[in-house]
Amino acid sequence: MSVIVHKVNDNVHLLRSIDANRKLFDELIPLPDGTSYNAYLIKGSEKTALIDTTYPPKIEFLTNRLKELGVDKLDYIISNHAEQDHSGAIPKLLEIYPEAKIVTNAKCKALIMEFLLVSDDKFIVVGDRETLSLGDKTLEFILAPWVHWPDTMFTYLKEDKILFSCDFLGSHLAIDDLFITDEDNVYKAAKRYYAEIMMPFRAHIKKHLEKIDTLEVDLIMPSHGPSYQNPDFILNAYKDWASDNVKNEVVIAYVSMYESTRMMVDYLSQILTSNKITVKTFDLIKTDIGELAMDIVDAATIVIASPTVLTGAHPVAANATYLVNALRPKTKFASIIGSFGWGGNMVEQLKGMLGNLKVELIEPVMIKGQPKEADFALLDSLAKEIINKHENSMLIKA
Ligand code: FEO
């Protein structure tokens, strides 16, 4: 556990809490690379502000670093987002710096008051495009609701053209570097993060990107992971993910008890692959759901494959279906395949769990026991249908 400090320029310092051992976020999202929480100290000629804070277990490290930087007075704590990985140190900071005011929007204020029990008189509420002067530096606030909560805002340091984008454009990486050193690594981590929390709010994400396009931005500094000296790298990636374009890909999420469902998955995958469709299969017993989330960002088709157990879908398949539905990918087609022994209502059950998706459901294939000749013929038909639909849609090549 540590907080590292990077001097960005004479007025801006990054204070990054490194959380290399954290395995899960929100007790849901796997963190294969740990994470980091970025706070930014901005010193103007008259006032000093801290943009965001840290996760509660890191508070002492952050306050020690502020002392080492000689911060004996803090005028403002800018809260871009109430989630406690960014706001968790606010109560402690108010003890150390009782003169500080929390500057945030009305929705974020209400959430901080509920979650952190901060009193009303500690806040300065700002609206969209309002500014705050630190003397020779000006902060502009840009409301960005539904990055994944209703309260998020960005802070723009006008004179330095730095955008502090909070969760937006960030990546869960426990990394020391101030700026990106490995674009592929950051691309994957950022896509995973987009998929896990922002994808359901794609329409809002597009609007936030349009707003950022109206700003002159030299640096993007998110609240997780390294900063972007080349803003177009991450902005273009987000534009692609949030666009309506899908790729010539099929994601098959499956679980199999006695190999019958797995045989179906293997057969379907092989036909699709031999017809130049990229197929990603996920064994739900082993898979990291973050990997699955990443691949449904732009796959044209999702297939859920499950045996029937306890008269319905395997609970692991139901869990994945629930997640896919909650993440609302832009997928165009879906289907369900599986095997049963004596009956059950798996197809109806899983179909009923996909109500959020604007997909065309391709006729499911349910078979009895191990697949036989007639069953493989049904899978041939399903594959043909998927291939035709992909060919008739405007798909970007995977
Ligand atoms: Fe990084 Fe929504 O908190």
What do you see in this structure?
The protein is 33% helix and 26% strand. The chain has 398 residues and is α/β, with parallel strands linked by helices. A hairpin with a 3-residue loop joins strand 3 and strand 4. Helix 5 packs across helix 9 and helix 8 (260-274) crosses helix 12 (373-392). The longest helix has 20 residues, at 373-392. It is elongated. It starts with a strand and ends in a 6-residue tail after the last helix. The relative contact order is 0.10. Bound molecules: MU-OXO-diiron. Residues 81, 83, 85-86, 148-149, 167, 223-224 line the site of MU-OXO-diiron. MU-OXO-diiron (FEO) binds at residues 81, 83, 85-86, 148-149, 167, 223-224.
Features:
single chain, 398 residues, alpha/beta, Metallo-beta-lactamase, Chain A, Rossmann fold, 2 domains, seven-stranded mixed sheet, 12 helices, binds MU-OXO-diiron
Strand content: 25-35%
Q: Can you tell me the residue ranges where pLDDT is under 50 for at least 5 consecutive residues?
A: none
CATH architecture of the largest domain: 4-Layer Sandwich
Give the overall average pLDDT: 96
Residues in helices, as a percent range? 25-40%
Number of strands: 21
Radius of gyration: 24 Å
Shape summary: elongated
Determine the CATH superfamily of the largest domain. Ribonuclease Z/Hydroxyacylglutathione hydrolase-like
Biggest sheet features: 7 strands, mixed
User: End-to-end distance, in Å?
Assistant: 40 Å
Q: Which class of the largest domain in CATH terms?
A: Alpha Beta
Which strand order do you get reading across the main beta sheet? 1-2-5-6-7-8-9
Task: Count every helix, treating DSSP H or I runs of 4 or more residues as helices.
Answer: 12
Number of domains: 2
As for the CATH topology of the largest domain, it is: Metallo-beta-lactamase, Chain A
State the secondary-structure class.
alpha/beta
The hetero compounds bound to this protein are: MU-OXO-diiron
